[in-house]
Specification:
One of its GO terms (biological process) is response to antibiotic. By secondary structure, this protein is an all-alpha fold. The protein has one domain. It is built from twelve helices and no strands. The longest helix is centred in the middle third of the chain and has 31 residues.
Length: 266
């Protein structure tokens, strides 16, 4: 397989890694980029889901000490137990709705126009949330209760619409429910781990019949580029939210979503 054949894999891997944890919709960018690269269809949809594993493993790597502490303290540490309970509760809404709506979403919502509309609407919601006077009651992930995790998990359900953004839905949901920016962002990272592992595993199970051995190199290159670009994006976002709000992402969503809407509806 020559380099030109791998170009879509490299480009889409970079796009996935840079956008997965920003509130701008990685799936939306992948659908639009895939359309521009003429890489579409069922295999493209499965590829887009599979390379998310690379981005998720970047979170696991960056937070490996925290995750190892949780695992080793699971039987004795109440904080570790509460952390795991929150993750389980947080993924339940998406797991239930994902199983019920999988075919509908894959068949009818994975198109550039839906993505562009969702980007614009999501940008408007971020603007509205950032206009509110905020006095966060939770400033650390370990302060969260299962009810807080459930609320964020319910917000994550909206991200099933491509272009909405999983990280955007969970971060903005967290802000609405009293989490600080850093806490909402970090819980979004942690919640992504079980959510995306389950989503990717289910998608591969459903799409296994359309994959071939020749796809392994193409998928592997996308996976690796997504991993390394996600490492960069996560570090940048954590530094950014320490001193900034999310309005820049709202502007980005509205402007880029509007441009794509004009392009794909021409």
């Amino acid at each position: 397989m020559d380099l030109s054949a791998l170009l879509p894999s490299i480009v889409l891997g970079i796009v996935e890694g840079l956008t997965e944890f920003l509130p701008i919709s990685s799936t939306g960018h992948l659908i639009i980029a895939g359309d521009l690269l003429n890489y579409t269809g069922d295999q493209a949809k499965t590829f887009e889901v599979c390379i998310q594993l690379g981005a998720i493993l970047a979170v696991c790597w960056l937070y490996r000490r925290r995750l190892l502490k949780v695992i080793t303290g699971l039987t004795t540490d109440r904080t570790a137990q509460n952390f795991v309970i929150n993750l389980i509760v947080g993924i339940l809404p998406s797991a239930v709705f994902g199983l019920l709506l999988y075919e509908v979403i894959k068949s009818h919502l994975f198109n550039p126009v839906v993505v562009a509309l969702a980007m614009v609407v999501g940008g408007g919601i971020i603007f509205l949330v950032e206009r509110r006077d905020r006095h966060p009651r939770i400033t650390d992930v370990d302060q969260m209760q299962w009810t807080d995790a459930l609320k964020v998990g319910l917000a994550q359900v909206f991200s099933m619409v491509p272009g909405t953004s999983r990280s955007g839905a969970t971060i903005i949901g967290g802000l609405l429910f009293g989490l600080s920016r850093r806490t909402a962002t970090e819980f979004s990272f942690f919640l992504a781990i079980p959510t995306m592992f389950l989503a990717t595993g289910y998608d591969i199970y459903k799409s296994w019949h359309i994959l071939a051995h020749t796809d392994l190199v193409f998928f592997g290159v996308g996976f690796i580029t997504a991993f390394f670009s996600a490492l960069v994006a996560i570090k940048m976002l954590i530094r950014y939210v320490a001193n900034h709000d999310f309005k820049i992402f709202a502007w980005y969503r509205v402007v880029v979503g509007s441009l794509f809407l004009l392009y794909f509806m021409r």
